[in-house]
Design brief:
five-stranded mixed β-sheet, aminopeptidase activity, alpha+beta, Xaa-Pro aminopeptidase, six-stranded mixed β-sheet, Creatine Amidinohydrolase, Creatine Amidinohydrolase, Chain A, domain 1, metal ion binding, metalloprotease
Length: 373
Protein backbone atom coordinates (compact mmCIF):
# COMPACT_ATOMS: atom_id res chain seq x y z
CA UNK A 1 0.00 0.00 0.00
CA UNK A 2 1.34 3.46 -0.93
CA UNK A 3 1.57 6.35 1.47
CA UNK A 4 -0.25 9.49 0.27
CA UNK A 5 3.14 11.15 -0.19
CA UNK A 6 4.39 8.29 -2.38
CA UNK A 7 1.26 8.39 -4.53
CA UNK A 8 1.58 12.16 -4.99
CA UNK A 9 5.27 11.81 -5.86
CA UNK A 10 4.53 9.20 -8.51
CA UNK A 11 1.61 11.23 -9.88
CA UNK A 12 3.92 14.24 -10.18
CA UNK A 13 6.51 12.21 -12.08
CA UNK A 14 3.80 10.81 -14.34
CA UNK A 15 2.41 14.27 -15.09
CA UNK A 16 5.88 15.51 -15.97
CA UNK A 17 6.26 12.60 -18.35
CA UNK A 18 2.78 13.24 -19.78
CA UNK A 19 3.78 16.82 -20.56
CA UNK A 20 7.00 15.63 -22.21
CA UNK A 21 5.07 13.17 -24.39
CA UNK A 22 2.06 15.43 -25.05
CA UNK A 23 -0.27 12.99 -23.33
CA UNK A 24 -3.69 14.27 -22.27
CA UNK A 25 -4.96 11.30 -20.30
CA UNK A 26 -3.61 8.08 -18.77
CA UNK A 27 -6.12 5.28 -18.15
CA UNK A 28 -5.15 2.35 -15.93
CA UNK A 29 -7.13 -0.79 -15.20
CA UNK A 30 -7.04 -2.94 -12.04
CA UNK A 31 -3.44 -3.96 -12.61
CA UNK A 32 0.08 -3.65 -11.26
CA UNK A 33 0.25 -0.24 -13.00
CA UNK A 34 -2.65 0.94 -10.83
CA UNK A 35 -1.14 -0.63 -7.71
CA UNK A 36 2.25 1.02 -8.33
CA UNK A 37 0.79 4.47 -8.96
CA UNK A 38 -1.96 4.60 -6.35
CA UNK A 39 -1.58 1.70 -3.95
CA UNK A 40 -5.04 0.49 -4.99
CA UNK A 41 -5.36 -3.07 -6.24
CA UNK A 42 -9.12 -3.68 -6.43
CA UNK A 43 -10.79 -6.98 -7.10
CA UNK A 44 -10.76 -7.47 -10.85
CA UNK A 45 -13.89 -8.85 -12.48
CA UNK A 46 -16.32 -7.82 -15.20
CA UNK A 47 -17.25 -4.58 -13.42
CA UNK A 48 -15.35 -1.67 -15.03
CA UNK A 49 -12.82 -0.02 -12.73
CA UNK A 50 -10.23 2.50 -13.93
CA UNK A 51 -7.89 5.19 -12.70
CA UNK A 52 -7.83 8.21 -15.02
CA UNK A 53 -4.99 10.73 -14.69
CA UNK A 54 -4.94 14.16 -16.33
CA UNK A 55 -2.74 17.16 -15.58
CA UNK A 56 -5.17 18.67 -13.08
CA UNK A 57 -7.20 15.69 -11.92
CA UNK A 58 -6.92 12.02 -11.01
CA UNK A 59 -9.87 9.84 -10.03
CA UNK A 60 -11.32 6.37 -10.16
CA UNK A 61 -14.25 4.81 -11.92
CA UNK A 62 -15.19 2.50 -9.05
CA UNK A 63 -17.94 -0.08 -8.58
CA UNK A 64 -19.69 0.82 -5.33
CA UNK A 65 -19.30 -2.84 -4.36
CA UNK A 66 -15.53 -2.29 -4.08
CA UNK A 67 -15.45 1.31 -2.92
CA UNK A 68 -15.16 0.79 0.83
CA UNK A 69 -12.26 -1.66 0.56
CA UNK A 70 -10.41 0.50 -1.98
CA UNK A 71 -10.91 3.63 0.12
CA UNK A 72 -8.45 2.29 2.71
CA UNK A 73 -5.66 2.56 0.12
CA UNK A 74 -6.21 6.04 -1.37
CA UNK A 75 -7.71 9.46 -0.85
CA UNK A 76 -8.19 10.06 -4.59
CA UNK A 77 -11.84 10.69 -5.57
CA UNK A 78 -14.16 7.87 -6.61
CA UNK A 79 -16.84 8.09 -9.28
CA UNK A 80 -18.92 5.19 -8.06
CA UNK A 81 -21.62 3.22 -9.84
CA UNK A 82 -24.01 0.48 -8.77
CA UNK A 83 -24.92 -2.74 -10.53
CA UNK A 84 -28.49 -1.55 -11.06
CA UNK A 85 -27.41 1.62 -12.88
CA UNK A 86 -24.26 0.65 -14.83
CA UNK A 87 -21.01 2.60 -15.27
CA UNK A 88 -21.95 4.96 -18.14
CA UNK A 89 -23.00 8.01 -16.10
CA UNK A 90 -20.11 7.67 -13.66
CA UNK A 91 -17.62 7.38 -16.54
CA UNK A 92 -19.08 10.49 -18.19
CA UNK A 93 -18.72 12.41 -14.92
CA UNK A 94 -15.14 11.19 -14.51
CA UNK A 95 -14.18 12.28 -18.03
CA UNK A 96 -15.70 15.71 -17.40
CA UNK A 97 -13.81 16.06 -14.11
CA UNK A 98 -10.59 15.15 -15.91
CA UNK A 99 -11.33 17.68 -18.72
CA UNK A 100 -11.11 14.79 -21.15
CA UNK A 101 -14.10 15.65 -23.34
CA UNK A 102 -12.29 17.27 -26.25
CA UNK A 103 -11.72 15.77 -29.68
CA UNK A 104 -8.55 13.93 -30.68
CA UNK A 105 -7.04 13.68 -27.21
CA UNK A 106 -3.85 11.65 -26.74
CA UNK A 107 -4.68 8.75 -24.42
CA UNK A 108 -2.34 6.21 -22.85
CA UNK A 109 -4.11 2.89 -22.21
CA UNK A 110 -3.03 0.23 -19.75
CA UNK A 111 -2.05 -2.65 -22.06
CA UNK A 112 -3.11 -5.13 -19.37
CA UNK A 113 -6.62 -3.68 -19.06
CA UNK A 114 -9.56 -5.82 -20.15
CA UNK A 115 -10.48 -5.14 -23.75
CA UNK A 116 -14.09 -4.32 -22.87
CA UNK A 117 -12.92 -1.73 -20.31
CA UNK A 118 -10.62 -0.10 -22.87
CA UNK A 119 -13.28 -0.06 -25.59
CA UNK A 120 -15.86 1.38 -23.20
CA UNK A 121 -13.49 4.26 -22.45
CA UNK A 122 -12.54 4.88 -26.09
CA UNK A 123 -16.19 4.78 -27.16
CA UNK A 124 -17.03 7.42 -24.52
CA UNK A 125 -14.42 9.79 -25.97
CA UNK A 126 -14.32 11.81 -29.20
CA UNK A 127 -11.82 10.32 -31.67
CA UNK A 128 -8.99 9.74 -29.16
CA UNK A 129 -5.49 8.81 -30.28
CA UNK A 130 -4.29 5.93 -28.17
CA UNK A 131 -1.06 4.16 -27.32
CA UNK A 132 0.20 1.94 -24.50
CA UNK A 133 2.22 2.81 -21.40
CA UNK A 134 5.74 2.21 -22.75
CA UNK A 135 6.89 5.85 -22.54
CA UNK A 136 4.91 6.83 -19.43
CA UNK A 137 3.90 4.52 -16.57
CA UNK A 138 5.97 1.52 -17.69
CA UNK A 139 9.03 3.73 -18.16
CA UNK A 140 8.66 5.19 -14.67
CA UNK A 141 8.06 1.79 -13.09
CA UNK A 142 11.26 0.46 -14.65
CA UNK A 143 13.41 2.77 -12.50
CA UNK A 144 13.19 1.26 -9.02
CA UNK A 145 13.39 3.45 -5.91
CA UNK A 146 15.18 2.57 -2.67
CA UNK A 147 12.11 1.02 -1.05
CA UNK A 148 11.56 -1.22 -4.06
CA UNK A 149 15.23 -2.22 -4.02
CA UNK A 150 14.97 -3.19 -0.35
CA UNK A 151 11.85 -5.29 -0.97
CA UNK A 152 13.37 -7.09 -3.97
CA UNK A 153 16.62 -7.72 -2.06
CA UNK A 154 14.75 -9.21 0.90
CA UNK A 155 12.79 -11.53 -1.39
CA UNK A 156 16.01 -12.74 -3.01
CA UNK A 157 17.80 -13.37 0.27
CA UNK A 158 14.84 -15.53 1.31
CA UNK A 159 14.88 -17.25 -2.07
CA UNK A 160 18.56 -18.15 -1.62
CA UNK A 161 17.68 -20.04 1.55
CA UNK A 162 14.86 -21.92 -0.18
CA UNK A 163 17.11 -23.06 -3.04
CA UNK A 164 19.84 -24.15 -0.62
CA UNK A 165 17.22 -26.11 1.34
CA UNK A 166 16.10 -27.77 -1.89
CA UNK A 167 19.58 -28.93 -2.82
CA UNK A 168 20.11 -30.19 0.74
CA UNK A 169 16.92 -32.29 0.50
CA UNK A 170 17.95 -34.19 -2.63
CA UNK A 171 18.06 -37.94 -2.31
CA UNK A 172 17.51 -40.84 -4.65
CA UNK A 173 13.82 -41.46 -5.33
CA UNK A 174 12.54 -38.01 -4.32
CA UNK A 175 10.26 -36.38 -6.89
CA UNK A 176 10.36 -32.95 -8.48
CA UNK A 177 7.06 -32.15 -6.82
CA UNK A 178 8.42 -33.08 -3.38
CA UNK A 179 11.38 -30.72 -3.83
CA UNK A 180 8.94 -27.99 -4.80
CA UNK A 181 7.22 -28.73 -1.49
CA UNK A 182 10.49 -28.17 0.36
CA UNK A 183 10.89 -24.81 -1.36
CA UNK A 184 7.31 -23.78 -0.67
CA UNK A 185 7.60 -24.76 2.99
CA UNK A 186 10.66 -22.53 3.36
CA UNK A 187 8.73 -19.62 1.89
CA UNK A 188 5.77 -20.14 4.21
CA UNK A 189 7.97 -20.45 7.29
CA UNK A 190 9.49 -17.07 6.46
CA UNK A 191 6.32 -15.14 5.65
CA UNK A 192 6.44 -15.37 1.85
CA UNK A 193 4.24 -17.01 -0.77
CA UNK A 194 5.22 -19.15 -3.73
CA UNK A 195 5.32 -17.10 -6.93
CA UNK A 196 6.35 -19.96 -9.21
CA UNK A 197 8.59 -23.03 -9.08
CA UNK A 198 10.13 -25.27 -11.72
CA UNK A 199 12.06 -28.27 -10.42
CA UNK A 200 13.68 -30.16 -13.29
CA UNK A 201 15.39 -33.54 -13.09
CA UNK A 202 17.31 -34.78 -16.13
CA UNK A 203 15.52 -34.34 -19.45
CA UNK A 204 12.85 -32.16 -17.82
CA UNK A 205 15.42 -29.37 -17.77
CA UNK A 206 15.42 -29.24 -21.57
CA UNK A 207 11.97 -27.61 -21.37
CA UNK A 208 12.50 -23.96 -20.33
CA UNK A 209 9.01 -23.74 -18.80
CA UNK A 210 8.74 -27.20 -17.27
CA UNK A 211 6.19 -27.76 -14.50
CA UNK A 212 7.44 -29.76 -11.52
CA UNK A 213 6.10 -33.29 -11.85
CA UNK A 214 6.42 -36.82 -10.52
CA UNK A 215 9.82 -37.59 -12.07
CA UNK A 216 12.00 -39.33 -9.48
CA UNK A 217 15.64 -38.46 -8.92
CA UNK A 218 18.14 -41.11 -9.93
CA UNK A 219 21.91 -41.26 -9.76
CA UNK A 220 23.93 -39.18 -12.23
CA UNK A 221 21.10 -36.79 -13.06
CA UNK A 222 21.22 -33.09 -13.90
CA UNK A 223 19.14 -30.74 -11.74
CA UNK A 224 17.74 -27.32 -12.61
CA UNK A 225 15.88 -25.23 -10.03
CA UNK A 226 14.09 -22.05 -11.15
CA UNK A 227 11.97 -20.56 -8.39
CA UNK A 228 10.73 -17.36 -6.82
CA UNK A 229 8.68 -16.12 -3.89
CA UNK A 230 6.70 -12.96 -3.15
CA UNK A 231 7.53 -11.03 0.00
CA UNK A 232 6.07 -7.64 0.94
CA UNK A 233 4.57 -7.23 -2.53
CA UNK A 234 7.69 -7.94 -4.59
CA UNK A 235 8.98 -11.19 -6.12
CA UNK A 236 12.29 -12.98 -6.45
CA UNK A 237 13.48 -15.09 -9.36
CA UNK A 238 16.62 -17.22 -9.62
CA UNK A 239 17.87 -20.32 -11.44
CA UNK A 240 20.66 -22.57 -10.19
CA UNK A 241 21.91 -25.88 -11.52
CA UNK A 242 23.40 -28.95 -9.92
CA UNK A 243 24.16 -32.59 -10.48
CA UNK A 244 23.18 -35.62 -8.42
CA UNK A 245 26.29 -37.76 -8.77
CA UNK A 246 29.25 -37.08 -11.05
CA UNK A 247 28.68 -34.88 -14.11
CA UNK A 248 30.11 -36.05 -17.41
CA UNK A 249 32.25 -33.94 -19.72
CA UNK A 250 29.29 -32.79 -21.86
CA UNK A 251 27.36 -31.46 -18.89
CA UNK A 252 30.44 -29.75 -17.47
CA UNK A 253 31.18 -28.13 -20.84
CA UNK A 254 27.62 -26.84 -21.25
CA UNK A 255 27.54 -25.51 -17.69
CA UNK A 256 30.80 -23.64 -18.21
CA UNK A 257 29.60 -22.12 -21.49
CA UNK A 258 26.41 -20.83 -19.85
CA UNK A 259 28.42 -19.37 -16.97
CA UNK A 260 30.68 -17.59 -19.47
CA UNK A 261 27.57 -16.22 -21.20
CA UNK A 262 26.28 -14.82 -17.90
CA UNK A 263 29.64 -13.19 -17.25
CA UNK A 264 29.71 -11.64 -20.74
CA UNK A 265 26.24 -10.16 -20.28
CA UNK A 266 27.09 -8.81 -16.83
CA UNK A 267 30.25 -7.21 -18.19
CA UNK A 268 28.43 -5.17 -20.85
CA UNK A 269 25.39 -4.17 -18.75
CA UNK A 270 25.71 -0.45 -18.01
CA UNK A 271 23.43 2.59 -18.20
CA UNK A 272 23.06 3.71 -21.81
CA UNK A 273 23.51 0.23 -23.30
CA UNK A 274 20.77 -1.19 -25.53
CA UNK A 275 18.92 -4.21 -24.21
CA UNK A 276 19.69 -6.09 -27.42
CA UNK A 277 23.44 -5.64 -26.86
CA UNK A 278 23.24 -7.54 -23.56
CA UNK A 279 21.35 -10.32 -25.32
CA UNK A 280 24.02 -10.36 -28.04
CA UNK A 281 26.85 -10.58 -25.53
CA UNK A 282 25.39 -13.71 -23.97
CA UNK A 283 24.24 -15.23 -27.27
CA UNK A 284 27.61 -14.73 -28.97
CA UNK A 285 29.34 -16.83 -26.29
CA UNK A 286 26.88 -19.68 -26.68
CA UNK A 287 26.94 -19.50 -30.48
CA UNK A 288 30.75 -19.53 -30.56
CA UNK A 289 30.70 -22.72 -28.47
CA UNK A 290 28.45 -24.40 -31.03
CA UNK A 291 25.20 -24.29 -29.08
CA UNK A 292 23.54 -21.26 -30.65
CA UNK A 293 20.48 -23.18 -31.80
CA UNK A 294 20.03 -24.56 -28.28
CA UNK A 295 19.57 -21.11 -26.71
CA UNK A 296 15.80 -20.97 -27.10
CA UNK A 297 14.71 -17.68 -25.51
CA UNK A 298 15.62 -14.06 -24.84
CA UNK A 299 18.35 -13.33 -22.31
CA UNK A 300 16.14 -11.61 -19.76
CA UNK A 301 13.08 -9.78 -18.52
CA UNK A 302 12.41 -6.91 -16.16
CA UNK A 303 11.20 -7.55 -12.62
CA UNK A 304 9.26 -5.37 -10.20
CA UNK A 305 5.72 -5.72 -8.90
CA UNK A 306 5.33 -8.16 -11.79
CA UNK A 307 7.77 -11.00 -12.13
CA UNK A 308 7.90 -10.28 -15.87
CA UNK A 309 7.75 -6.62 -16.91
CA UNK A 310 9.81 -4.20 -19.02
CA UNK A 311 12.62 -3.92 -19.90
CA UNK A 312 12.96 -7.13 -21.90
CA UNK A 313 16.52 -8.19 -22.73
CA UNK A 314 15.92 -9.48 -26.24
CA UNK A 315 17.62 -9.42 -29.63
CA UNK A 316 14.89 -7.18 -31.09
CA UNK A 317 14.83 -4.62 -28.26
CA UNK A 318 16.13 -1.09 -28.89
CA UNK A 319 15.32 -0.03 -25.32
CA UNK A 320 18.09 2.02 -23.72
CA UNK A 321 18.77 0.74 -20.22
CA UNK A 322 18.93 3.24 -17.38
CA UNK A 323 20.20 3.34 -13.83
CA UNK A 324 17.67 1.72 -11.52
CA UNK A 325 16.40 -0.79 -14.07
CA UNK A 326 15.93 -4.29 -12.64
CA UNK A 327 16.10 -7.25 -14.98
CA UNK A 328 17.24 -10.85 -15.33
CA UNK A 329 20.26 -12.24 -17.11
CA UNK A 330 19.47 -15.90 -17.77
CA UNK A 331 21.06 -17.55 -20.80
CA UNK A 332 20.53 -21.26 -21.23
CA UNK A 333 21.37 -24.28 -23.32
CA UNK A 334 18.76 -27.03 -23.75
CA UNK A 335 19.65 -30.48 -25.09
CA UNK A 336 16.43 -32.33 -25.87
CA UNK A 337 16.12 -35.68 -24.16
CA UNK A 338 19.20 -35.02 -22.00
CA UNK A 339 19.22 -31.91 -19.80
CA UNK A 340 19.12 -28.14 -19.70
CA UNK A 341 21.39 -25.60 -18.07
CA UNK A 342 20.19 -22.09 -17.27
CA UNK A 343 21.82 -19.70 -14.81
CA UNK A 344 19.79 -16.68 -13.80
CA UNK A 345 20.61 -13.54 -11.88
CA UNK A 346 18.30 -10.61 -11.20
CA UNK A 347 20.30 -7.39 -11.23
CA UNK A 348 19.73 -3.70 -10.64
CA UNK A 349 21.65 -1.39 -12.94
CA UNK A 350 23.89 1.02 -11.06
CA UNK A 351 26.05 3.81 -12.45
CA UNK A 352 29.04 1.49 -12.72
CA UNK A 353 27.22 -1.65 -13.79
CA UNK A 354 24.92 -4.37 -12.45
CA UNK A 355 24.42 -5.30 -8.81
CA UNK A 356 23.23 -8.88 -8.30
CA UNK A 357 20.40 -9.40 -5.82
CA UNK A 358 21.12 -13.03 -4.96
CA UNK A 359 23.96 -13.86 -2.59
CA UNK A 360 24.08 -17.51 -3.67
CA UNK A 361 27.04 -18.39 -5.91
CA UNK A 362 26.30 -19.66 -9.42
CA UNK A 363 28.75 -22.56 -9.11
CA UNK A 364 27.65 -26.06 -10.05
CA UNK A 365 26.09 -27.67 -6.98
CA UNK A 366 27.34 -31.23 -6.95
CA UNK A 367 25.36 -33.53 -4.64
CA UNK A 368 26.71 -36.97 -3.82
CA UNK A 369 24.26 -39.82 -4.21
CA UNK A 370 24.40 -40.28 -0.44
CA UNK A 371 22.87 -36.77 -0.17
CA UNK A 372 26.05 -34.87 0.76
CA UNK A 373 26.99 -31.79 -1.27
Amino acid sequence: MNTPALTQSRLSKLRTRMAETQTDLVALGPSSHMAWLSGVHPHGDERPVMLLVAQDYAGFLMPSLNGAAARDATDLPFHEWRDDEGPEAALTDLLKAASATGSGLSVVLDETMRTDFALRLLDAMDAPKRRFTDDTVALLRAAKDDAEYDAIKAAHVLNDGAVQAAFAALREGITEREIEGVINAHYKENGATLEFCSVCFGASGAFPHHYSGDTKLTANTAILLDTGCRLNGYPSDMTRCGFFGTPDDTYTEVFNVVEQAVQAALAIAKPGVLARDIDKAARDVITAAGYGDKFLHRTGHGLGIDIHEPPYIAANSDVVLNEGNVFSIEPGIYLSGEFGVRLEEIVILREGGPEIFSDMPRKLVQVNTDGAS
